[in-house]
Amino acid sequence: MTRHPFAVITAALLLLVCSLANAQITAQTGAVTGTVTDPTGASIPNAKVLLTSEKGIVQEKATSEAGTFTFPLLEPGLYKITVEARGFSKAAVNGVRVQITETTNLPVRLEVGTETIEISVAAEAVAINTSAATLGNTLPGSVIDQMPLATRNFTNLLALNAGTSSDLPNAAAAGRASSTVFVNGQRGTGNNLVINGVDANNIASNNFGNVAIPAPDTLEEFRVQTSLYDASQGKTSGGNINAITKGGGPEYHGQLYEFFRNEKLNANDFFFNKNGSAPP
After folding, report:
1. Residue 68 to residue 78: CA distance in whole angstroms
2. Which of 40, 60, 88, 196 has its CA 20 to 30 A from that of 248?
3. How many CB atoms lie within 10 A of CB 125?
4. Where do the domains of the chain lie, and which CATH numbers do they carry?
5. How far, in Å, are 6, 7, 8, 9 from residue 3 at the CA level?
6. pTM, two decimal places
7. Whole-number Å distance between alpha carbons of 257 and 99
8. pLDDT per residue as tens digits for the range 191-243
9. CB 178 within 8 Å of CB 206
10. CA 9 to CA 186: how far, in whole Å?
């Protein structure tokens, strides 16, 4: 049997290109997929679907013969989707949230007519992911900013997910004190940390020690995947932590904060209070 190295290399490259073309999400992006139907539930092919980001970037797709559409590789944030088809009223869905490493499922139903219908999506609505079996939670930056982080280290929040636990961090180590997180009984070195799509693990021990930790104010969101993640995520048997920092915008903005700690602000020990003793 004669082997042709060039043919083997060419086939491998084609397989890689096809895999990348079919990818919908990465470690720092998400996706939106949905189906456009009429009032009877029948699919509407060739409907025009527009997706608009908060920055004003517009993408256009046409639904397939089955009435489906997909917008892959989207930055986390809020989007507006507008759908229109001949013989049907135009529908606009506002506040469609895309989260890191997640696929948002958005069914859209068009009514017969010519009027424009505005459909608002409640921000607190819980989206059920029917496209993947991955388990894990996403924590947005608006929540991270409100959390009482004694060391301003977001890794102290990683154990908020079901099936995770962590040791108690050193509250005196401002800016550091990374927590060791154990996911589903795995070792603390069995996790994978990715920041903005880049491997951020400690090369020596594959944990969070001595790695760059962004300030909580700079985080757009992060997600901890605990199990059933696909082959595109992670290289270990523990948890996958995907974090993304905030991007720029058309206007100048920033934040100012003061991090102040002093022994005068510390509460007294319970037993010292009971005995009437002064704080140590």
Report:
1. 21
2. 60
3. 9
4. 26-120 (2.60.40.1120), 135-245 (2.170.130.10)
5. 9, 8, 8, 11
6. 0.68
7. 27
8. 988 898 888 888 887 777 777 788 888 899 999 988 887 777 767 888 899 99
9. no
10. 38
